[in-house]
Amino acid sequence: MFKKILKSYDYSLIIVVVLLCLFGLVMVYSASMVTAIQRYDYPSDFFFQKQKFNLLIAAVLFILAALFPYKAMKSTRLLLPMVTFILVGLSALFLFGKVTNNALSWFELGARSLQPSEFAKLSVIIYLSAVYAKKQAYINQFNKGVVPPLVYLILVCMLVAIQPDFGTAAIIFAIAATIIISSGMNLKNITKLIFFGLAFLAPFVIFLQDEIFSKTRIGRFTAYSNPFMDEQNTGYHLANSYYAIGSGGIKGLGLGESVQKLGYLPEPHTDFIIAIISEELGIFGVGFVLLSLAFIVLKGIHISLKCKDPFGSLLAIGISSMIGIQSFVNLGGASGVIPLTGVPLPFVSYGGSSMIQLAIATGILVNISMFVHYEEKHKKDKVSQQKPSAAMGNQNTFKFRT
């Protein structure tokens, strides 16, 4: 039984995730060595060593998540503590949190930091998937089947937004929207949700307009259209990202040979790591990252379509959409397709909270895939066992008649 389960794991997904993480570890060292010395007066391998430790923790949690039956996650015994823990954690930030980049988003735990909003993403995916899976019989009853699960989503988005971290709040909302659209509810209810959602958001936008439309955030919008108009101020990050991407060309300058990481490009090992990859490894390095991320996202969608269990299907689509949306936001910001939001590139950028949360999420995805493959093999074995017995029955009947 255990051997059959092990054979059912999707090793292609595991291999791609591992390779992408190891590639990211190498690029974190290359991108951060100068920043560690010049900006923080740390050893050159400081961020590399921390990321290596993050990966070790992530690997353990990935294995545990891959072994833990995903169907147990929809139990109320697990959902309620998870929801409570996330809400308490996000609320506690306002008392014990640490301000980083003008946002109260972190807990300082000795030499390390923890970002609760990263884990809030996964909690929203699990919660919405579980509740909407249970409500399939009356999913189109607006008051009973559609609205109740959204209370948790609204609370999480509000707590993240007022930190303020509007980028992460928007990503959580986009992930939830993907699950809602995939839940099976009709277009009428989706239209209602959009209408009521806009009506609900309007007062908050008016009340927080000075914060939402601050000079810094408006500057990001004006900079992304033409960063060279104000290259030394609002367009500084994006302009240097362009220089890095443009100078890499097809082959790149070579691993460790980036010029922009020498103090020109801020946060080269986090938000702008793709620019350093492009500069040092050219189109081949960027292509590896893009193809790997696309494979993980498409594999998640494939698992969702193959899974017959509504909870597993919604969980898979939620996890794959989270990886896809976050990748698009990071890559789009670094390349000037959309305004900058300060989101790490999944599996590649430096960051403990992001890496650990992604490891748990992909572990769950691997577990769903395992159950799908195991059930398919079990059905095939049943069919193959029934065919000989049916043939024997037909043969006996034939002999009897003769």
From TrEMBL:
Subcellular location: Membrane
Ranges that cross the membrane: 12-33, 53-71, 78-96, 116-133, 145-162, 168-186, 193-209, 272-298, 310-329, 349-372
Function field: Peptidoglycan polymerase that is essential for cell division.
Catalytic activity line of the entry: [GlcNAc-(1->4)-Mur2Ac(oyl-L-Ala-gamma-D-Glu-L-Lys-D-Ala-D-Ala)](n)-di-trans,octa-cis-undecaprenyl diphosphate + beta-D-GlcNAc-(1->4)-Mur2Ac(oyl-L-Ala-gamma-D-Glu-L-Lys-D-Ala-D-Ala)-di-trans,octa-cis-undecaprenyl diphosphate = [GlcNAc-(1->4)-Mur2Ac(oyl-L-Ala-gamma-D-Glu-L-Lys-D-Ala-D-Ala)](n+1)-di-trans,octa-cis-undecaprenyl diphosphate + di-trans,octa-cis-undecaprenyl diphosphate + H(+)
Entry superkingdom: Bacteria
GO terms under cellular component: cell division site; plasma membrane
InterPro entries: Cell_cycle_FtsW-rel_CS, FtsW/RodA
Record-given protein name: Probable peptidoglycan glycosyltransferase FtsW
Family affiliation: Belongs to the SEDS family. FtsW subfamily.
One Gene Ontology biological process: cell division
